[in-house]
């Protein structure tokens, strides 16, 4: 039976591809979103990442509109500067991690990916050790790496270190990310979303690890999330 919470598809048959699951599939995949819902949830995810710094910019401008004291004016300008920088970094990261970022056969420089990742993730609590060589990789493989970093960041909510290492070399390179920090943990349901053991809930938080799985499938890889001592390992192989 189709999930009553989801709209019926426009056609009686779904087009083939990893974005679609038949109704005869297992309960784990029966709730997979269709193409329109996937796009909507990813847009919600991007908006979620941007609303905080953009809202802070608006607040800073409202303070300036009130003709504040000199010290309040400087505080507002500093808030606007920092928030605009954060919003720009998040936009650039989201464009590469979730957006088209060039043609279907495009390649992306890992050096550019490193810059985007540091701008988005490094915030004083979380830092990145980047052990990847600088080379061009297929677009979806780089998008997969950036989404794996987001998943890894969720395992260290109090901050820590993300260490990015290569698996293999050349255009078939995949990745291993080691997350270390105070109280590193496995986020609820993330492992199942990555492995395909269950479908995503209809919210912007669940769609990101689900999208990571789709990217891995497009590269012929599987993403796993598992503890290793006091660290959490996210790997694609």
Automatic annotation (TrEMBL):
Pfam family, one: HPTransfase
Keywords for this protein: Transferase
One function term, GO molecular function aspect: transferase activity
Coiled-coil region list: none
Protein name per Swiss-Prot or TrEMBL: Histidine phosphotransferase
Gene3D superfamilies: 1.10.287.130, Histidine kinase-like ATPase, C-terminal domain (3.30.565.10)
Domain of life: Bacteria
Domain Histidine phosphotransferase ChpT C-terminal as annotated: residue spans: 111-230
